[in-house]
Amino acid sequence: MSVTRSATLRSLAKINLDLRVLQRREDGYHELRTVFQTISLADVIEVAYTAAKRTRFTIDDDLQIPNNLILRAADSALHAMKVSAEVRFRLKKQIPMGAGLGGGSSNAAAVLLALPVLAGRALPIEHLMELGAALGSDVPFFLDGGTAIGLGRGTEMYALPDIRREPILLLTSGIHVGTAQAYQSLSEKLTSQSVSPKINNFRIYTRTLMATRSAGAASAQSANDFESAVFGLHPQLKRLYDRLRKACAKSVTVRMTGSGSALFVVFESIAERDRVRAVMASGGLNEDARVLSANLVNGSGYRQLWRRQLGAHISSLKKQQPRQRQQWPLQSRYAT
């Protein structure tokens, strides 16, 4: 009788600390320059893996998300490992959908990281990255987490050194911004803009971020090219942006993440974040809006999280040499 191996996974959200949109590529996508950052807001995925002669997936998802990336990622992982199994998922959704926080992509990456460990197989990070890119542009980032520069479509990743785990505030409006619509609105403005200043300003931002190791300190140099286009499409979102700016100190920068619609602020202190949260929550928000507290999660914190949640299924750290302890992705204790 096959043994069932289970794990509970926290699937973290992301924000774009900076996002520049350049010219349209020959493949129809736009050339991007962005800095991805994992944050502590998370969905919870319970997964149970049982080796079987035939593959079968089931998912308990209160939202009944169509074409759920969890199932697509599971199918990709089992196919790549050349195994069959019954895999059961339960998804507890906490990351607002359609807000630019990457919840679906994070869910897919969580499955790609966890299933090889539960199955006792190894998939190199390069292979996982290929699988992730086929599922969605943001998925490869969540396979490593922390802070990373994204180039091209956003799938070409370069990890950055750890930055501070600063407190942040998220304001989600309940407004769904269609990515295609946001790009279409932005594209009308791109033809009259020079690419060189954008690239230079992006370099200034990343250098400031690395010099200070603080997203808050670097935020004055940040930008998100989608903001003007999305605010034009959704004036109510611009009003929320203005209200959040008014609630913050003048030295603090408010940004939108991705193509919207979530807004975020990085703070120097928890006390200041909580003060602004109280102001924003005091009234005047629509019933779908949420004001959420979170923290930045750097690369070290991201890997520690994964070691904790898969700890029962990975090789004991005490028995490993220092170099082995740094291996990524995590190695299964069931591997033969």
Features of this protein?
single chain, 336 residues, alpha+beta, Ribosomal Protein S5, domain 2, Alpha-Beta Plaits, 2 domains, ten-stranded mixed beta sheet, 12 helices, globular
Describe this protein's structure.
This protein is an alpha+beta fold. The chain has 12 helices and 10 strands. It folds into 2 domains: 4-161, Ribosomal Protein S5, domain 2 (2-Layer Sandwich), CATH 3.30.230.10; 167-297, GHMP kinase, C-terminal domain (Alpha-Beta Plaits, 2-Layer Sandwich). Strands 1, 2, 3, 4, 5, 6, 7, 8, 9 and 10 form a 10-stranded mixed β-sheet that branches. α1 (69-81) packs parallel to α2, α2 packs antiparallel against α3 (125-135) and α5 packs across α8. The two termini are 19 Å apart. The model has no long low-confidence stretch (mean pLDDT 93).
In short:
By secondary structure, this protein is of the alpha+beta class. It contains 12 helices and 10 strands.
Q: Detail the poorly predicted runs.
A: none
Q: How much helix, percentage-wise, in residues?
A: 25-40%
User: Main beta sheet, described?
Assistant: 10 strands, mixed
| Rg, Cα atoms, Å | 20 Å
Say how many strands there are: 10
